[in-house]
C-alpha cells in the first residue's frame, strides 16, 4: 500500500531579484462606488443588474491614471505627436495588479483570494480540508487520500501575511480566512448629471418636451473600516480622483510595498501555484484556460479551477464614448496550476504568453500567481506513523 504525503518544502525565497511591484495603491471611497459596465448580455440585464463588476479591475485603475496623466501632459504639450510620445513614456512602465482589499489600519496585510484547494465549511472561517494533486491517483485528494464532499464557502479571502502558512500539513496550523468581503450591493435609482454642472441631464424630444434621465445604478457600499488595494510598479500621485463615473470621488494613497510581500512576489512559483488575480489567456478571438505554450506534456500537469468569468475593459480614446475591448473570459482567482516544469516568478514570465489588445494584459497583472508547494502530493513507502493513506479505489480509471 502506498502513502500520500503533502510536500512541506519551504518556498525558495529569492532575496536578490528586485520586485516588479514596489508600491501599494490604497483607495478609500468618499461615499458609494459602482460596478463597471460593459459586461456580456445575460438574464441579469432584465432585472437591472447588468454591468455589475466589483471591485474595479486593475484595468480600471490604469485608466484612472492614464486619464490623469493625459490631462497633465496636454497642458504642457500642445503638439499631438509629442504629446502622445510623452504620454506613452509615462504609461508604459506602469504595471498594476489587483483588486484586493484590506483593513484601513493595516493596508500592508491585504487580503487575496483563497486558493481553490482550501475547502472552507459554510458559515465558518476555518479551512476544513486542503486538497493536493496526487499524480499516482490522478485526483485531487485530502490528507487521507479521499475526495471530500459537502457544501463549502466560495469567494473567501486570505491575508497576504498568512500565505506561507498554507504550506503546513497540519489543519490546526492553517490560517483563518474571511468568508465574505467587506462590501454589499445597494442598487438604487440615480439621475444622470450634466457634464458641466451638477444638475439633472434632460433630453429634449421631437415634440419639444423634456424627458428625464433616471436609471438604476449598481451602488456598492464598502465598509468604512476597509479599503481597496492594488499593487503598482511605480509611485503614483496621491490625492482625490474621480473613479466610477458620475463624479464619484475616491481618496487615493500610494505607499511603499512591504519588503516581505516583495520577497513573496519574487519567489519562483515552482511546480504548483495559485492565481490571485484573474487570468486572460489565448488569442484575441479565443479565450483558453492556460497559455498556448503550456499545452504540452513538458509544461502542464493539471488545473483546479471553476467556471470562467466575463472580462471586458474600456480602451479609451479621444471621443466622447470610449471604445470597449473584445469580450473575453477570465480564469477565476483561486485557480491552481500544477506543472511538469517549474516556473520562474510571475514577473519573469514571457510577455508572449499574455494577450495584447492595445497594451499587453500583463501590464494589468493578468494571472498574477503565488507559489503553493502544498498543492502537490507525492507517494512514499508506507509509514505506520502516518494516517495519510492512498486507498485502492484511487487507482481505478475515471
Automatic annotation (TrEMBL):
Q: In which organism is this protein found?
A: Aetokthonos hydrillicola Thurmond2011
- Protein name, per record: Type III-B CRISPR module-associated protein Cmr3
For this protein, the record's InterPro entries field holds: CRISPR-assoc_protein_Cmr3
Q: Which domain of life is it from?
A: Bacteria
Amino acid at each position: 500500500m502506498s502513502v500520500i504525503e503533502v510536500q512541506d518544502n519551504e518556498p525558495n525565497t529569492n532575496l536578490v531579484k528586485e520586485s516588479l511591484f514596489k508600491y501599494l495603491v490604497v483607495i478609500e471611497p468618499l461615499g458609494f462606488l459602482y460596478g463597471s459596465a460593459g459586461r456580456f448580455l445575460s438574464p441579469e440585464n432584465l432585472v437591472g443588474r447588468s454591468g455589475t463588476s466589483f471591485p474595479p479591475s486593475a484595468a480600471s485603475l490604469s485608466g484612472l491614471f492614464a486619464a490623469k496623466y493625459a490631462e497633465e501632459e496636454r497642458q504642457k504639450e500642445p503638439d499631438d505627436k509629442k504629446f502622445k510620445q510623452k504620454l506613452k513614456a509615462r504609461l508604459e512602465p506602469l504595471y498594476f495588479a489587483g483588486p484586493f482589499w484590506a483593513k484601513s489600519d493595516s493596508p500592508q496585510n491585504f487580503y487575496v483570494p483563497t486558493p481553490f484547494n482550501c475547502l472552507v465549511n459554510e458559515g465558518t472561517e476555518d479551512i476544513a480540508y486542503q486538497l493536493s494533486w496526487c499524480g499516482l491517483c490522478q485526483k485531487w485528494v485530502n490528507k487521507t487520500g479521499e475526495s471530500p464532499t459537502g457544501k463549502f464557502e466560495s469567494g473567501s479571502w486570505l491575508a497576504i501575511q498568512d500565505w506561507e502558512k498554507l504550506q503546513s500539513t497540519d489543519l490546526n496550523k492553517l490560517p483563518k480566512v474571511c468568508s465574505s468581503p467587506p462590501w454589499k450591493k445597494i442598487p438604487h435609482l440615480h439621475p444622470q448629471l450634466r457634464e458641466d454642472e451638477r444638475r439633472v441631464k434632460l433630453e429634449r424630444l421631437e415634440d419639444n418636451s423634456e424627458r428625464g434621465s433616471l436609471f438604476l445604478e449598481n451602488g456598492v457600499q464598502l465598509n468604512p473600516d476597509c479599503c481597496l488595494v492594488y499593487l503598482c510598479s511605480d509611485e503614483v500621485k496621491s490625492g482625490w480622483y474621480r473613479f466610477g463615473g458620475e463624479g464619484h470621488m475616491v481618496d487615493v494613497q500610494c505607499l511603499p510595498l512591504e519588503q516581505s510581500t516583495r520577497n513573496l512576489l519574487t519567489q519562483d512559483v515552482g511546480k504548483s501555484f495559485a492565481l490571485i488575480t484573474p487570468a486572460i489567456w489565448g488569442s484575441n478571438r479565443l479565450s483558453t484556460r492556460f497559455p498556448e505554450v503550456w499545452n504540452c506534456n513538458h509544461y502542464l500537469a493539471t488545473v483546479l479551477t471553476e467556471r470562467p468569468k466575463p472580462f471586458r475593459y474600456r480602451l479609451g480614446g479621444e471621443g466622447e464614448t470610449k471604445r470597449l475591448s473584445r469580450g473575453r473570459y477570465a480564469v477565476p482567482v483561486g485557480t491552481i496550476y500544477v506543472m511538469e516544469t517549474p516556473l520562474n516568478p510571475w514577473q519573469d514570465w514571457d510577455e508572449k504568453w499574455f494577450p495584447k489588445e492595445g497594451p499587453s494584459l500583463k501590464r494589468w497583472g493578468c494571472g498574477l500567481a503565488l507559489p503553493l508547494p502544498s498543492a502537490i502530493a507525492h507517494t512514499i513507502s508506507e509509514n505506520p506513523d502516518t494516517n495519510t493513506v492512498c486507498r485502492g479505489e484511487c487507482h481505478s480509471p475515471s
